[in-house]
Amino acid sequence: MKTLIIAAVFISFTATTNAGSTYFIDQTKLPFTALPNATAYWGVHTNAGYHIEVPDNWNGELVVWAHGFRGFAENELTVDNHPMRHFLIAQGYAWAASSYSRNNYDVTTAVQDTLALLKRFNGIVARPDKIYMTGLSMGGHITAVIIEQFPNLFAGAMPICGAVGDYESFDFILDFNLAAQQLGTGSSVFPVEPFTYVTATVPSIKANLESAPNMWPTGLNQKGENLKNLVMMRSGGDRPNFDSAWYYWNTFRNIVTGPGNFLFDLGLSDGVMPRNPGSTVENIDVVYQFDTDPELSAEEQAFNDAVFRIALAPQSKNPNGLSQVPVISGNLPIPVLTMHNIGDLYAPINNEIAYATKVKQQGKQDLLVTRAYKGVVHCDFTASEMVSSFLDLVDWVENGNKPAGDDFLDASNVAADDFGCQFTDGDHLLGATCP
């Protein structure tokens, strides 16, 4: 076991962004112990921290890891080790991961810092024969963008619980909060005034959508059921574990104001992202429904007529380059295998639907495999699920054996009781039992 330090002499590195936020790296946290028969490297490069690990019997191939969203207010830049680290080293793969040079939802910076990490790897180790791109959550968005923007760098990609619909997760949070307001208070607005929303509006919404006091989110009146059904439809449609997903995401998850308010707390955002002065969310053309019948009922029509509408800022979606929140075109240059929990309501499966739709429109469906899992927690996968998917991706890249997947574009298939069971391997919190 060998451990080398590749780092500057300062204990911490600070970088002030053009928006005025100061990010820092505590270099005392960068060192990590290499696994047996491997060498660990760490340091700071282009204002980002990095970890690299190379086995002694390196097979010449590199697996890059893109971490997920760190938050809007978090100033410390930290590095994640690859979640498949032990497997990769044992199988002869090197891996590398970056902290990025800033937090926030800044895909452009993350892509640029990941490219810088690849150059750093070339300088420290050697140029790899093949590079696999992997990433989680926002890292899935980064993965999908970087392989399209730099198609000749990578051999295969595996976005995990990824925001591969680029804007779909943002729009879903908008949908949830506007619908909750409209059904729970009779009116809706965006953006909200945070203090009033947290202290008055959200409690009022819950009280008005309950069938009896303190019954949220399981004991709902008709308007409450309409909200639940609308959320199901906007997050990806009817699916077998949505009841568990609704319960979990409206009960346990905590981000700002306490357990049960996770989806409401996400609605405190004004929809403005780094590099983008305007809103990145819209619902101007959305047709909201309370059931799977495409024909609008009088109740659905009244809701659609009344709910607040917002249009995307015209500069937000740029199909070229890395401006604003980069758009994913679906023009795949390499094999891509995705993994997604069907009960995830942080990055819902509408991302997979949007991604598969774009890929099909580009005529590149032969290069995409999407896999569904029965979990409800964001990015909750077992080690065996991740490893088996990665091995299938490698076999596809090296031998041309396209692996099996799940069809997210067939609504009846998504609604089937066994959807998500084909690749689920292990226990998932609140996951429905597979036949």
Automatic annotation (TrEMBL):
Signal peptide residue numbers: 1-19
Lineage: superkingdom: Bacteria
Keyword terms, alphabetized: Signal
Xref: InterPro entries: AB_hydrolase_fold
UniProt-recorded name of the protein: Phthalyl amidase
Organism: Thalassotalea nanhaiensis
